[in-house]
TrEMBL record:
<feature type="transmembrane region" description="Helical">
    <location>
        <begin position="34"/>
        <end position="56"/>
    </location>
</feature>
<keyword id="KW-0812">Transmembrane</keyword>
<feature type="transmembrane region" description="Helical">
    <location>
        <begin position="6"/>
        <end position="27"/>
    </location>
</feature>
<keyword id="KW-0472">Membrane</keyword>
<feature type="transmembrane region" description="Helical">
    <location>
        <begin position="210"/>
        <end position="233"/>
    </location>
</feature>
<dbReference type="InterPro" id="IPR007300">
    <property type="entry name" value="CidB/LrgB"/>
</dbReference>
<dbReference type="Pfam" id="PF04172">
    <property type="entry name" value="LrgB"/>
</dbReference>
<dbReference type="GO" id="GO:0016020">
    <property type="term" value="C:membrane"/>
</dbReference>
<protein>
    <submittedName>
        <fullName>LrgB family protein</fullName>
    </submittedName>
</protein>
<keyword id="KW-1133">Transmembrane helix</keyword>
<feature type="transmembrane region" description="Helical">
    <location>
        <begin position="147"/>
        <end position="170"/>
    </location>
</feature>
<feature type="transmembrane region" description="Helical">
    <location>
        <begin position="93"/>
        <end position="117"/>
    </location>
</feature>
Length: 234
């Protein structure tokens, strides 16, 4: 009976949704980045597959039905931009300068580290979309020839770390401006950073959501340039 259930597409789908909903409940009660629904679901699915010896291919028969919503989720980010456009209009010089320079610096660092540690092209390209949320990073990684599963892991890890240490860094660096805090959360820790930013304040949450969209637009421009440079070097 169990083996029959595992072999159906409903297994991967229900397992993913179930762990995500459980993570949502736990995160509301325990405000720790580890219990972020996305992180919690990923960890639980990995543990379940290891314990039950179920292959990724079997799980993905149902899990792929969730993946098809990545593109609509990416397009839906435009709603966040429209709702918070007034913040961009009021602070666009600082916001655009900070995000563009940050993405450019990130791209340069990826190229330098790839040379330093002798990454091959697919591995190097995997890290190019790291500054953006998963929905956008997957599409960019696919387009530049990166390793999509590893890109997802890197993006999630970045989000967890950013959400965890963000408030401490603000205190140490004496960053008190809510707009600056929100932009920092969204452009470095994406969706998970936005969850944390919403907890910190309304303005921080709005600016973080805006930063996700703007950073996504900027990285779409810079990632192909970085990929072309990597191709020339490798």
């Amino acid at each position: 009976m169990i083996s029959t259930l595992v072999a159906t597409p409903f297994f991967g789908f229900m397992v993913s949704i179930g762990f995500y909903l459980l993570g949502s409940i736990l995160y509301k009660r325990i405000k720790l980045p580890l219990f972020n629904p996305l992180v919690f679901a990923i960890i639980c699915v990995i543990i379940l597959l290891l314990l039950t010896n179920v292959s990724y291919e079997t799980y993905n028969e149902g899990g792929r039905y969730i993946s098809i919503w990545v593109t609509p989720a990416t397009v839906a980010l435009a709603i966040k931009l429209e709702k918070n456009f007034k913040y961009l209009k009021e602070n666009y010089p600082a916001i655009l300068t900070g995000i563009v320079s940050g993405v450019a610096f990130h791209t340069v660092l990826i190229i330098l580290f790839s040379l330093l540690f002798r990454f091959d092209y697919p591995l190097a390209a995997t890290f190019l979309p790291k500054p953006v949320t998963t929905a956008i990073a997957i599409g960019i990684s696919e387009s530049v020839g990166g390793l999509v599963p590893l890109t997802v892991a890197v993006v999630v890890f970045t989000g967890v770390v950013g959400a965890l240490i963000g408030p401490t860094l603000f205190r140490v660096a004496n960053i008190t401006n809510p707009v600056a805090q929100g932009i920092a959360f969204g452009s470095s820790a994406h969706a998970m950073g936005t969850s944390k930013a919403i907890e910190v304040g309304e303005v921080q949450g709005a600016m973080s959501g805006l930063a996700i969209v703007v950073t996504g637009i900027v990285i779409v421009v810079f990632a192909p340039i970085g990929a072309q440079i990597l191709q020339l070097l490798f």
